[in-house]
Write a structure and sequence with these properties.
about 350 residues, alpha+beta, TolA/TonB C-terminal domain, 3 domains, 4-stranded mixed sheet, about 30% strand
Length: about 350
């Protein structure tokens, strides 16, 4: 039985968050950057044709001591189309975007490959040593419960009066990124710096840091030039950014559970909880869909138990999510217990509004 999932997806292209400073005047959190330093399949090195950058996370210095330089080895496979599948994280993995970024990474098409690994190295940067490009990626692309760090000066530069005395905007145009090609699973962004003249017009717009999508960057700069601010004192050292998740979702690869005897008659669910809250959020942000096949038993009164994952794609996260969801469902009553039941749960991204959000 295929169960469609409609999950809320983060809106695209919201404005970057305002700069926040800790109560003592200095936010001491730095950033952990995750870098995939090597891929191999059955001991042979492989090189991706498209590599998705992993989103950084904020971390306090006292916690970073055990995280800095830590290596996480992530298991996966590659199908005939070059897509990463069967992604498995090691115990104790941290970094919510590691598996989704690997799911968005692509290798050359050809013979399927098994027993693949990605070597992910974590590097901690104190708040006063964060590389500007890393700060821009963190600042521009929002994630859930993301602490807001004092990164504006890293992006726009230390000189200028725009941060302390921001100009009041009168016209704020928003780009139509629907027309810009985006790779499946990619999170495109552009972080721009600019100044404002006394007439309230943006000047000297520069795309300092981008995800590498030239068309996306061009649209962002063109729309930024259409902004208008309250005339008055000129401003320098301003920064703004756009980001967008893919408009078209990346569907899950097909399941391949192999021969499996179906010992349970057709199922009729008397109750199925709302599925949206169970969608792995980091995959939802990248519009990456998933699927899971579960085996379970059912008591005569309809309660579900003995749930196990037969297979999930493209990552084990979707199987884990389905394991949380299914026991909360209920089936119709029956005269006897049922065993060997199976259900396929599909995590689908809902159709999104064509309106650009800001």
């Amino acid at each position: 039985m295929l169960l469609p999932l409609f999950a809320a997806l983060l809106g695209s292209v919201p404005p970057p968050p305002p700069v926040a400073v800790a109560s003592d005047g200095v936010d001491t959190r730095g950033l952990i950057d995750f870098e995939a330093e090597g891929y191999s399949c059955e001991g042979t090195a492989v090189t991706p044709v498209r590599k998705a950058a992993i989103l950084p996370i904020a971390m306090r210095p006292e916690v970073s001591l055990e995280r800095d330089s830590q290596v996480q080895t992530v298991g996966f496979a590659i199908d005939a189309q070059g897509r990463t599948i069967s992604i498995r994280l090691p115990d104790g993995t941290y970094g919510d975007d590691i598996a989704p970024a690997l799911a968005a990474t692509r290798f050359a098409a050809g013979t399927p490959r098994q027993a693949c690994t990605a070597r992910i190295v974590a590097r901690y940067y104190p708040h006063d040593q964060i590389p500007r490009a890393l700060a821009a990626r963190y600042w521009t692309i929002p994630t859930r419960d993301r602490p807001r760090l004092e990164t504006h000066a890293l992006i726009a530069g230390p000189d200028g009066n725009c941060e302390k005395e921001p100009p009041r905007w009168l016209v704020r145009a928003q780009p139509d990124f629907d027309r810009v090609p985006v790779d499946p699973g990619a999170l495109d962004f552009v972080a721009m710096t600019y100044s404002v003249d006394s007439a309230g017009r943006p000047r000297d717009i520069e795309a300092r840091f981008t995800s590498g999508n030239a068309a996306f960057t061009q649209v962002g700069k063109r729309v930024m030039a259409q902004w208008r601010f309250q005339p008055g004192e000129a401003r320098a050292g301003c920064a703004y950014g756009y980001w967008s998740a893919p408009r078209s979702p990346l569907p899950p690869p097909p399941l391949d559970p192999g021969p499996m005897k179906k010992e349970c008659p057709d199922l009729h669910f008397a109750y199925m909880p709302e599925l949206g809250p169970y969608f792995p959020r980091a995959f939802s942000q990248r519009s990456i869909e998933g699927i899971a096949l579960l085996r379970f038993s059912v008591a005569p009164w309809g309660q579900i138990g003995d749930v196990e994952v037969v297979e999930s794609q493209p990552a084990e996260a979707f199987g884990e999510a389905a394991m949380l969801l299914l026991p909360r469902a209920r089936l119709d009553r029956s005269d006897a217990p049922r065993v060997g039941c199976t259900a396929t749960i599909r995590f689908s991204v809902p159709k999104r509004s064509r309106d650009t959000k800001g």
